[in-house]
Amino acid sequence: MIAVWIIIGLAVVLVAWLILTYNSLVTVRNEVDEAWSDIDVQLKRRHDLIPNLINSVKGYVKHEAGTFEKITALRSEAMKAQNSGDMKAIATAEKNLQAGIMPLLGYQENYPDLKADSTFLDLQAQLTDTENKVQASRRFYNGNVKNFNTKLQVFPTNIIAGMFKFVAREFFGIEDEAERAVPEVKF
């Protein structure tokens, strides 16, 4: 009779552990999804700001149409990548878009009237703020991915993760190795 109670007690403990482990995996997976959503929101904000920034600059910089077309094309590529859900494609497209925007922000040095335009300055400040938020969201996302992936790999949680088909997530990182290189500063 005591053996039966011990077996029942062990079964209850095992089921409770299974439930707690599964629930902790779901919680961490949802934190990763929430963190990705934060990135998604900031990227959408960036995509929405770009046409307004281009329009505010167009009036001052008539002969730079090629730059505007390039930025518009890069924005379209970034939006397509975002809709695809492919992390590598999103990272690459967003890196290209960010690089494409930089000349637009530099026009204020060459066009003094643009430097004084309050709409341009406001949009520039919003875009800078958005870029900072994108970076913070990426760090938050990568932290959550690290926690999730670690949880999937440690014993005995990895057994439960495998049983319920939890899949590791990719970090939102630098794809181009040239970006990792330390810049050379010359005076």
Structural key phrases:
de novo design (two linked rop proteins); single chain; 6 helices; mainly alpha; rod-shaped
How big is the Rg? Answer: 24 Å
Q: What amount of the residues lies in strands?
A: under 5%
Q: Helical segment tally?
A: 6
- Average pLDDT works out at 84
Structural class comes to: mainly alpha
From the N-terminal CA to the C-terminal CA, the straight-line distance is 85 Å
User: What is the CATH topology descriptor?
Assistant: de novo design (two linked rop proteins)
Largest sheet: none
User: What is the count of distinct domains?
Assistant: 1
The 3D shape can be described as: rod-shaped
Q: What's the helical proportion of residues?
A: over 70%
Q: Quickly name the level 1 CATH class.
A: Mainly Alpha
SSE series = HHHHHH
Low-confidence stretches: 179-183
Strand tally: 0
Named at the architecture level, the CATH assignment is Up-down Bundle
Give the CATH superfamily: LemA-like domain
Note down, in words, how this protein is organized:
It is a single chain. The protein is an all-alpha fold. The protein has a single domain, classed as LemA-like domain (de novo design (two linked rop proteins), Up-down Bundle), CATH 1.20.1440. Helix content is 80%, strand content 0%. The chain has six helices and no strands. It is rod-shaped and about 90 Å long. The protein starts with a helix and ends in a 24-residue tail after the last helix. About 3% of the residues have low confidence.
